[in-house]
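re the bet — no i am not wrong, look at it urself. input seq straight from the record:
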Amino acid sequence: MRLASVCDPSAGTVWGLVEHETLIPLSAAWAGIGEALAAGPGTIRDAAAAQTARLALEGCEWLPPVPRPGKILCVGLNYKNHVAEARRELPRHPSLFPRFADSFVGHGAAVTRPWVSEKFDFEGELAVVIGRGGRHIPRERALEHVAGYTCLAENSVRDFQKHNAQVTPGKNFAGSGAMGPWLVTADEIPDPSELSLCTYLNGERVQDGRLADLIFPIPDLIAYISTFTPLAPGDVIATGTPEGVGSTRTPPLFMRAGDVLEVDIPGVGRLRNPVVDEPRAAAAEGRP
């Protein structure tokens, strides 16, 4: 199943099951997609089968599949070749940092290059969405807690990322990342390590990775993260970006207004977002 959240001009925010060019709305059954994920794919499928209404996706604004996750945890330096291009040592434990929900937009929406920086970098990733929560989840059972997978453009404002040892500022500029178009349920992807990922900037392939190359595979990440924090339905774990980021190139390749960024994960989806500049007037006046 493909589950998505959209904003319809007349109905407002709606989530449901994507079927061809329509959405089977399920907002009446569960207020949010996070609550539904806890019920499991079979229950969601049954609710969709009983629903006769259809919403045309044309004219809707795509939102991140889970618009307001309780937690968004991102993994840095999780591909060996990316560690090498960053001239870092292989990590002994996952490197983690939080992202705020308002730092992400949905498929088709513009990602924003902040006016305070010229170093807006691309980072394509696979994101894991939790379906069954828990604490101290054993590695061998970790995939049982996964609801599904989605494409993610994590992106970074590199100079702000490097202001200090903590990367949080450079990772959380409003609207700098993207997620979507939808969540593909885990029953359709029994082994996520078989997935591949490509990032395209203006149609040129700039990143090419395989999930089999993760230093810390998805079960390890879930086990490690759930050791220190309880995971809940709808929480998102971004698994890391492969080599090829713009900041390590000679010369560097950063995103500019007018660019188009795409993250393609066969079997999951293709996330596409134009790049725009943050208006200086709005920033100077203190507007969001």
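see?? The chain is about 15% helix and 35% strand. told u. also The first helix runs from residue 33 to 39. so pay up
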